[in-house]
Protein: HAF family extracellular repeat protein
Organism: Kutzneria kofuensis
Amino acid sequence: MPYSTKHCVIGVVTVAVLAAGVGTATAQAAPDRSTCSWTVQKLPAVPGFKQSSSYGTDHASHVFGAVTNDSGLTESPTVWSTDAGTPPRVLGSAHGADTRITALNAAGVAVGYYHDSTGRHPVRYVDGAYQDLPVPADARQAEAVDINAGGDIVGTVDGSSIILWPADRPGSYTVLPKAAGDSAAANGIDNARNIVGTVGHDDQITAYVWNSAGKATALPTATAGTWAAPRSIRNGRVVGAEEGSGRGAVIVWDLSGRVLWRLVTHGASSINADGLVSGWQSVPDGLVQQVMRNGRVVAPVPSEQGFFAAGGSSALTDSGLLAGDVQQQVATARCR
C-alpha cells in the first residue's frame, strides 16, 4: 500500500532480497586516472565572517553550508550560487538557536534542524523563513535529512525511526514501518520518493530502499561480516560503503538491490544523476579524495590546489561540479 499520512507506524517491513546476492557485478575494475584538468573557484566571502564551510549542493547551481567566526562552534546556515558574481545568502537561525542545514533543493527549499536545551527539532526554510516540521508527540531528537525536487522531506526521529513529510500533504508525516525494537535511520530521498536508510536489529545493520508504495528492498554486501552504509540516492542509483571486517569498499546499487559496481579500499560521499561518485581511497598514511564512475577512479581531487571536497551526500551537482573548501572558504571544483 502507499505511504499513509496518519501519524503512526504502519505495519512491518516486507523485504525483497536478491536471491543471487551480489553476483558477478562485484568484479573489480582497474583504476583509470584521466587526464582531465581541475578548475577550482572560491565563492564569495560573507562580510563579517572569517570562515565558511560547504556541506553539499542543490544538485544544480547552488552550494549550501555555513559561515562562522569560531571554527564552527557557532555557525549561520548560508547558500552560495555557483556563479561567483552572485552574493551569498545567509539564512540565519531557527528560533534563535543553533541551526544546521542538511539538504537543499533547486527550488531553494532547505531542510535541517535546530538544537536547543530540549533536543533537536526538524525544520525547513522556504520563502525567507524557517518552518517547524511536525513530529510524534514523544519525539526528543529529530532532524530532516534530505529533500527531493518536489519538496518531499525525509528524516530520522530519536535515532530509531524514519519519518517522511510528503510535499502533497503539508502538515502531515508518515513513520516508515519497522519491527518492534528495531532502530532505523534515513540517508536520503530521490525525486520518485524512494527512500534509502538503515534498520538495526540486535547487532545487525541492514540497508534498504523503500519505494513510494512502502516496499523495502535490502542492499547486499559482498563480504561476510560486513554491512552496507548507504550515503546517497540519485536517478535510480544508491551509493554507499561496505563497512565492518575487511578493507571496505564503495558500492553502487540499483533500486532492485543489484550491485552495479564495487571498488575496494574506497569510501563514498555522494552520487549525481549521471552516476559520478565523490569519495576517497584509503592509503597507509590517510585518505586520498577522488571522483569515481563505473568502478574506476576518474581523477584525484585537486588537493595540491588546497581543495578539499565536501563530505555531504549532495556534494556533486548533476553537471559534475564538486563543492568543497579552500583555506576555510567555500569553493567549487570541476574536472574537464
